[in-house]
Design brief:
Layout (H helix, E strand, L loop, with lengths): L1 E6 L3 E7 L6 E7 L6 H8 L31 E4 L10 E8 L2 E8 L4 E9 L5 E10 L5 E13 L5 E8 L2 E9 L4 E6 L8 E8 L10 E7 L4 E7 L5 E7 L6 E3 L5 E2 L2 E7 L2 H17 L13 E3 L1 H4 L5 H14 L3 E4 L29 H9 L3 E6 L3 E2 L4 H5 L19 E2 L5 H17 L2 E6 L17 H18 L4 E4 L17 E3 L6 H12 L7 E6 L12 H9 L2 E5 L7 H21 L3 E8 L2 E7 L5 E8 L21 E5 L12 H6 L4 E4 H6 L10 E9 L3
Parallel strand pairs: 20-21, 20-29, 21-22, 22-25, 25-26, 26-27, 27-28, 28-29
Antiparallel strand pairs: 1-2, 2-3, 4-9, 5-6, 6-7, 7-8, 8-18, 8-19, 9-16, 9-17, 10-11, 10-13, 12-15, 13-14, 14-19, 15-16, 23-24, 30-31, 31-32, 32-35, 33-34, 33-35
Helix pairs in contact: 9-10, 10-11
The structure holds (2R,3S,4R,5S)-2-(hydroxymethyl)piperidine-3,4,5-triol.
The site of (2R,3S,4R,5S)-2-(hydroxymethyl)piperidine-3,4,5-triol (DGJ) has 11 residues, from loops.
Amino acid sequence: MNTWRLDGATTTLLLLARGEGLPEIVHWGARLPSLAAAEVAAMRDRAVARNALDEDMPFATVLPTLGAGTFGAPALAAMRDRLDWTAEFRLDRVEELSHGLVLHASDPVGRLVLEITLGLAADGDTLTQQVAITSGAELAAGVQHLAAGVFALPPRVRTLLTLGGSWGHEFIEQRTDLPMGTLAIENRRGRTSHDRQPSLIGGGGELAEDAGEAWGVHLGWSGNHRTTAERQPDGSLVVQAAALLHPGEVEVGQGAYFTTPEAVCAYSANGLAGLSRALHRHVRTQVLRWPGGRMSRRPVTLNTWEGTYFAHDEQRLMAQATAAAELGIERFVLDDGWMLGRRDATAGLGDWTADPEKYPHGLLPLARHVEASGMQFGLWVEPEMANPDSDFLRANPNATLHVEGRKRRTSRHQVVLDLTRASVGEAIVAALERLLGELPIRYLKWDMNRELVAAGDEFGRPAYDGQVRALYAMLSHLRGKFPELEIESCASGGGRADYGVLRHTHRVWASDCTDALDRLAIQRGALRFLPPEIIGAHVSDSPNHQTGRRHTLGFRAAVALFFHMGVELDPLALLQPEQDELAAWIALHKRLRHLLHAGEHVALPAEDCRSLLGVVAADRREAAYLVAQEASPLHAIPSPLRLPGLDPAMRYRVVAPPPQQMPERHSATHRALFGAGIVLPGAALAAGFVPPPMPPESALVLHAVREGG
Ligand code: DGJ
C-alpha cells in the first residue's frame, strides 16, 4: 500500500495505491492534516457492494480503464489491429517533482506505457493533469480517446454549471442537476467553439457566488474536446476532460509519445467567486507568458471593425487615429479590410499585402501616423484561412484541409489552410514575418472565422488535432522571433478562448456582440475561468450593431471598464459632449486599472435584477465594484447594496467617481457618494447601504479606498 499527496494553499490531493495498479483518488478538495498511510487507507476502506465484482475496485483512479474492473467511461481507448483493446496499468514508479508527481505506468499485456503528470502549486489551488502515452510493440497502437485529466468530485456535488451559447452569445451559464448517468459536453467544430466551452463547474446545491464548495474543470485545448461528468456507484462524480480524437487520428509507435493537452481542476470553499480567484491566479501565474515576463499596463484600444468595417480610407483612418489619441486611447488596431482585394468577406483573404487602392504606399504611413500620435499599432490577420477568390488560393488550390473527392465547404466564403503541410505553414509564417519585419506592429489580432469540416491532411487523414498543434507551433515560433509582440485570440468573437491558446496569446475577444446588456452575461461567464485583464471589452455605437438596442454611453463604458477596455466606433462620428464623456471614462479606467487588472474577483448573487461584481486589492486597501441594474427592479426602494471583500474592521471611503452624475432622485448619502464619498467600516459596507434608484440597463461604478491609506 502506498499513498501520495499534493498540497495547495487551501487544498489537498490524496492518492492511494492498494495493489499494483494506478492509484485511486481518495480526496481532492479542502486541505487535510498530515495523515499516515494506514489512515488514508482507512478513509477509503469499504465493504464490497452486493452483486459486484468480488474485489473492491476503485471508481476513480487517476486514469480509469475498462480492464481494471470499473464500469464507468474509460479514460483511454486504444487498439492495435483489433487486439489489445483492453488496458490495465501497473504503476512502475512515481517521480516526485517540487510541486507535483509523475506516475510512470505500463500495461505489459497491451504493451502501452503512460506518464501521468500531476501538478499543484503550493500557493495555488489548481490541480493540473497531463498524460503522455507510447507503445512498446512493433505494431503501432491507434488511440481513439485519452483523457488529459480525471478529477474525482464527492457525492455532495449535485449541480453542474456549464458555459455555452452560440455566436454573439457566448459563455452563457447553464445549470443542471445530474442524475445517475453522464453529462457530456462535446465539440467537433475544430476550434474551441462558441457553443460548448471545455469548462465545467460542480458544486453542492445552488452553486452560490459567495459561499459553498465548487470545483471547476477546464481543458487547455483549442480544438475538438469532450468533457464528461459521470455519477459513480458511490454517488461520487468522475469528471474527465479530453481532446476529442477522430478515428485514425492518433497512432503511437515504438517510443513516440502522444501527449494530451493540460487539464485543470480548481477547488474553492468560497463559492463561485472563490473558484474564479483560484483560476485567475492560475492563468496569471501559470498560463500567460508576457513579453519581458511581466504584463505591462493594458493599453486602451481602438479597434476599427465596427466603426469602419471594410470601407478603409487611409485619410479617414489617420484622422480616426488622431481623434483616438485625443480620447486617451493607447493602441490602434487596424481590423479586417486592408488586404489586397478585400472589398468584403468574399475576397482577398490569404493575400497578405495591403490593397494598393486603399493604401497606395502600403500600411507604413498609417502605422507611422499611429505611432506619431503616441499609440501602438496593431494589425488584424486571419492566417489560417483564405478565400477561394484570392491569389494565394488560385496559386495553391490544394493548400486546404480537405478530403479528396469530398465537397469542400466554405463558410464566410473561406476555406481552412492546412497548417500541418510544411509548405503551407512556411508560406503563412513568411507572410507574417514580412509584415512584422516591415511594419512597427506591436499587436496582432489573430482571427479565425470558420469551423473545420472534413478536415483531412495531404494524405486524407483527419488533421483536427494536428492543425491545433501546428497553430501552437506557429504562434510559438512568431513569439520567439518577435518577443515584444502581443497577440489576441479572436475567432468570430469568443470561439477560441481557452488555456491552450492563452499559452501563446495575451487577450481574447469575448464576443462579437458588443451590446452592453448582453455583454454583462457574456463577461460574467467568461470571468469564471479568465481574469478580466485579458478579456477584451469595447465601447461601441448606440444603437448597437448586433442587437439594435440603445444604451447610454455611461452604461456602455461602465460595462467595458473592468476588462481590457477598448473602443469600437468611429471617434470622428462622436459629438463633442460624447467625446468628453468617453475621454473621462477612459481616464477613470486608467486611474483604476492597476486594481482592476491585478486584484481579486468578488461577486454576489443578483438581487432584484441587480448584479454586482468587483475587484479587491490583495491587501484590501482598495476595491472597485460594477453594479448593474439589468432589468426593472420589482421593489419601490432599492435593496441594500452589499460590498463584499473588504476588511470588516477598516473604514473605507466609497465614491461613485466622475463622469458619473447623481441621479435626479437621491438622498443625502447619495449626494456624498457622488461627491466626497461616504465613509463606513468594511463590516457595514458588507451589510449594505441603500444605493440610488437605478433605471433598467444602467450601471454604477463604485471605488472604495481605505481611510488613512
Ligand atoms: C470577426 C471578429 O470577431 C471581428 O471583431 C472582426 O475582426 C471580424 N471578424 C473581421 O472580419
